[in-house]
Design goal:
- By secondary structure, the chain is of the alpha/beta class.
- The chain has two domains: about 190 residues, Glycogen Phosphorylase B (Rossmann fold); about 160 residues, Glycogen Phosphorylase B (Rossmann fold), CATH 3.40.50.2000.
- The model has no long low-confidence stretch (mean pLDDT about 95).
Length: about 375
C-alpha cells in the first residue's frame, strides 16, 4: 500500500511539475497541498485515457526532429488575448531552426495574428489544413487538440508543449520559453535568452516617444474578482496632483458601464476636455498603437495588461487572488503592482492614485510590488 501510494504521488506530480524541470514561477506547492491525491490522479489519468483512445501514445516525441521543416501548431486553449500573448510570444525562437509553422486556432485568436510573419499561415477552418506537415505541435493534451490530431493526422509524430501540466497558476510566458526551447532542442545558452511579450509581429514593436501627460485606463473585465470598478474615485484622487493630465479610456464591450461612470464624473466636473472615451471603439491594432504612446497604463490583470507589455508601456497593475505578480512580470519590467488577497476592488483608489503619481515621476524602471494582505503562494 505504501509503495502504491508513492507511485500514485509520482504519477500525479506531472500535473504540477513541468517536463522540462523547474524554473517557472507557479503556485504548484499550494496546488499540490490543496488538491486530493485522488483528484490529481484522475486529472492525469483522463489525459492518459484521451491519449489511448486517440491512439497517440506511440506517436509522441520529446523534441521536433532536425529533419522536420513544416510544422502544424494546434493552439486550442481558452480563446483569450492575454493567454495567447503569453503562450505565443516564444515563437521568436523558431527562427533558430528555420521552421515553417502554420497555426491552427480559434477564429477569434486567428484574427489577432493574421499576417504575422512568424506564421506561414494562420488557420481556423479545418478544411484549410494541409496534408504535408512533417510534425504536429499541440498546446496540451486537452481533448480539442487530441481530437483534431486523431482525426486528421493519426500517425503523424507530435509533441504537446504542456504535456500533463495542468492545475496550477503559473508564468505562461516563461513556461512557453522553456517548453519551446526543449521542443526545438536548443542549447542551454540558447534557451536562456529572454522572451519578451509580443503581439502581431507585422506591427512595429520598437519603443516610441510617449505623450507624458496621457494616462490610459483599461476598463471592464470578465472575472469579477479581477475586474476593477472604482475608476472615477481613482481619477478624483489622482487629479489633486495631476490636474492637467489627460485620461484615455480603453476596453471592450464589458467596459462600457465603467466608461459611463467615468464620463459622468468628467461631465459633472466640467472637465470633458481631459478625457477620451475609446471603449469598444478601437481595433486591437489601434489599441496597441495607442499604448505605444501613453505615459502610463493602469489596468487590472487581463488582456490589455499583456497588450501593454507588448507595447512596452509603463504600468500600474491591480492583481488579486492566487496570481502572484511574478506570474506576469519579471524583475526588469517597468510595472508597479498592487496585489489584494481576494479581489482587485479591495484596493483603495487612493493607493492606486499614489502609485500612478510615483510612476509618472520617472522612477518606474523595474518591477515594484505592494500587497494588500498576504502575498499568494509562488514557488
Amino acid at each position: 500500500m505504501v509503495k502504491l501510494k508513492a507511485y500514485l504521488h509520482r504519477y500525479a506530480s506531472a500535473l504540477y511539475t513541468p517536463s522540462f524541470g523547474d524554473g517557472v514561477a507557479s503556485n504548484a506547492r499550494s496546488f499540490a497541498a490543496q488538491t486530493t491525491l485522488s483528484k490529481k490522479v484522475w486529472l492525469r489519468f483522463k489525459r492518459d485515457l484521451a491519449l489511448a483512445l486517440t491512439g497517440q501514445f506511440f506517436c509522441q516525441h520529446a523534441a521536433i526532429p532536425a529533419s522536420a521543416k513544416r510544422v502544424l501548431y494546434v493552439y486550442l486553449g481558452m480563446p483569450q488575448l492575454g493567454d495567447s500573448i503569453m503562450d505565443l510570444s516564444a515563437r521568436t525562437l523558431w527562427g533558430r531552426r528555420g521552421l515553417e509553422v502554420e497555426l491552427f486556432t480559434h477564429a477569434s485568436i486567428a484574427s489577432f495574428y493574421e499576417g504575422d510573419p512568424s506564421f506561414a499561415r494562420v488557420l481556423s477552418n479545418r478544411a484549410d489544413l494541409a496534408k504535408s506537415y512533417d510534425f504536429v505541435v499541440l498546446q496540451s493534451y486537452n481533448w480539442k487538440c487530441l481530437k483534431l490530431k486523431w482525426r486528421y493526422f493519426l500517425t503523424k509524430p507530435f509533441l504537446a508543449l504542456h504535456g500533463h501540466y495542468y492545475g496550477p497558476e503559473f508564468n505562461r510566458l516563461d513556461f512557453a520559453r522553456h517548453a519551446w526551447g526543449r521542443a526545438l532542442d536548443l542549447t542551454a545558452s540558447q534557451q536562456n535568452v529572454a522572451v519578451k511579450s509580443v503581439f502581431n509581429l507585422k506591427l512595429d514593436h520598437q519603443p516610441h516617444d510617449r505623450e507624458q501627460d496621457t494616462i490610459a485606463l483599461a476598463l471592464g473585465g470578465v472575472v469579477s474578482w479581477r475586474t476593477y470598478s472604482r475608476w472615477f474615485e481613482l481619477i478624483a484622487h489622482a487629479q489633486r496632483a495631476l490636474p492637467q493630465h489627460r485620461w484615455l479610456l480603453l476596453g471592450a464591450e464589458n467596459g462600457l458601464s465603467g466608461a459611463g461612470e467615468v464620463m459622468s464624473y468628467f461631465e459633472k466636473t466640467a472637465q470633458t476636455h481631459l478625457v477620451e472615451n475609446c471603449v469598444n471603439q478601437l481595433t486591437l491594432t489601434q489599441v496597441f498603437k495607442r499604448l505605444q504612446k501613453v505615459a502610463l497604463l493602469v489596468t487590472a490583470d487581463g488582456g490589455l495588461l499583456h497588450l501593454g507589455k507588448a507595447a512596452q508601456a509603463p504600468m500600474v497593475v491591480l492583481m488579486a487572488g492566487p496570481i502572484h505578480p511574478t506570474m506576469r512580470f519579471d524583475g526588469g519590467d517597468p510595472a508597479s503592482v498592487i496585489h489584494a488577497t481576494a479581489a482587485v476592488d479591495d484596493i483603495d483608489p487612493m493607493q492606486v492614485a499614489q502609485a500612478v503619481e510615483q510612476s509618472l515621476q520617472g522612477t518606474l524602471k523595474s518591477l515594484q510590488v505592494a500587497y494588500v494582505g498576504l502575498p499568494p503562494d509562488c514557488s
